[in-house]
Amino acid sequence: MAGALPEGDPAPADGHLPTESRLSRSPLSAYVHIPYCRVRCGYCDFNTYTADELPGTRREDYADQLVREIDFARGVLDCEFERPLSTVFFGGGTPTLLPARDLVRVLSTLQTSFGVADNVEVTVEANPDSVDLAYLEELVAGGVTRVSFGMQSAVPHVLATLDRTHDPERVPLVVNWARQAGLDVSIDLIYGTPGESLDDWRTTLDAAVKLDSGHISAYALIVENGTALERRIRRGELDSPDDDLVADMYELADSTLSAARFEWYEVSNWARSAAQQSRHNSAYWVNNDWWGFGPGAHSHVGGVRWWNVKHPSAYAQRVRDGISPAAGRETPDANARRLETVLLRIRLASGLTLAELSDDARNRVTGLATEGLLDTDALAHGTVTLTLRGRLLADYVVRTLTD
Q1: Residue 20's pLDDT band (boundaries 50, 70, 90)?
Q2: How far apart are the first and last CA of the chain?
Q3: C-alpha to C-alpha distance for 212 and 207, rounded to whole angstroms
């Protein structure tokens, strides 16, 4: 089960936003949360549910609920709002457990309600065992441009520890289907799984590179409290991830992907060209606006942040009643926004400018550069950018610049 929602102020039932928020001119994205999974992975802390965990709810009704929330959102933003969506992202969970026609219907509703940019990026997350060529072709016909496959590992025992159910030999097949359908392809990987060796990780990286996708994400496993994986580690059934090994794995990822003509543009993301970077995720990192739809989804529009109720049943009841599904919201002050800018932008290869730092933080950058954590050449031109060592210690850099 996902972690607790943030604390915040009560959200108005009518979803009202201040005028300055409704009139924001920041680029706008949409995130659509699909909370369904066939099997709950032991490491997962996302707001997802298997069929057994949702008695009395019907997956077949979910697209209707999303359509109602989209219509509600458009009413909140009212007729003064004129910002087509620059990106749309269907995440989960496993979005492709829904019929392709349901995802296309939701996308069509977003297009009608908000409009989309001419070069809109529309991404759907998928498990390798949840799609076939016909499904992918239906997505493309409905306006989807990109698919992100949860490969995670090419090594069977690592997949088993993660409770992933797909056959690693299926991944090249679905990637070829996606290309045949006309989709851009991203591959998601996880490293640092208990029992995973450096050679195991090398096998996975080599397999991912051979897929010849334009984008690869590699995330260090985080053992979240309350997950099945955390309980297994606590009982001594599995070892905790080793920090030194995890660091070696990151360095191996960077060297392997660099040799294959991938460039890092965010600490955990590499692309073969700027055009193949995830524009949706980049919108989060530069703090653009986005509206999140579905149970537990978070939103940020014009400086106001809010989050929906977590449980699909509670979410369904609210949208049926025509009220906001938001559980709470907040309006960060200028200091909180500055700290968030550092937290997000420091992760990007483009970095952030010295002018975006506080006076105290600017006094600390020289020390961080001396420690080999910041690029001295970039710093000379007024930009704060992480070195490879800095990427390994990004949390330390953030703490140093924000304490």
Answers
A1: confident
A2: 32
A3: 9
User: Which residues share a beta bridge with 91?
Assistant: 33
Please tell me whether residue 49 adopts helix, strand or coil conformation: strand
Residues 178 and 56 in one domain: yes
Residue 158 dihedral angles phi and psi, to the nearest 5°? -70, -45
Q: What separation in angstroms does the CA of 76 have from each of 248, 291, 331, 351?
A: 48, 12, 17, 34
How many CB atoms lie under 10 A from the CB of residue 184?
Answer: 19
The structure's pTM equals 0.95
Closest by Cα among 98, 120, 124, 139 to 185: 124
Strands 304-308 and 298-301: antiparallel
Any idea what the CATH number is for the domain that residue 361 is in?
1.10.10
Number of H helices, E strands in the chain: 17, 14
Q: What is the C-alpha separation between 215 and 197, in angstroms, rounded?
A: 24
**pLDDT of 24 higher than 60:** yes
Strand, helix or coil for residue 189: strand
Structure tokens belonging to residue 13: 């039932």
The set of residues, in sequence order, having a beta carbon less than 8 Å from that of 52 and lying 6+ positions away, is none
Last residue of a domain, one of 229, 256, 285: 285
Q: Would you give the DSSP letter of residue 36?
A: B
Q: Measure the CA–CA gap between 125 and 183, rounded to whole angstroms.
A: 12
The CATH number given to whatever domain includes residue 250 is: 3.20.20.70
Q: Which residue has the tokens 């998601």?
A: 188
138 and 234 inside one domain: yes
Give per-residue pLDDT as tens, 180-207. 999 999 999 999 999 999 999 999 999 9
The CA distance from 17 to 325, in Å, is 14
Instruction: Name the residue with tokens 């088993």.
Output: 160
Number of folded domains that form the chain: 2
Please tell me whether residue 97 adopts helix, strand or coil conformation.
helix
Helix 243-259 and helix 198-210: axis angle, to 10°? 30
Q: Judge whether 325 lies within some domain.
A: no
Determine the structural domain holding residue 391 and report its residue range: 333-403
CA distances for 117 relative to 74, 143, 363, 396, angstroms: 17, 12, 41, 38
Contact 216, 185 (CB under 8 A): no
Closest CA to 223 of 238, 242, 240, 198: 240
Judged by phi (left if over 0) then psi (alpha if -120 to 50, else beta), residue 231 lies in alpha
Tokens of 132: 């076939």
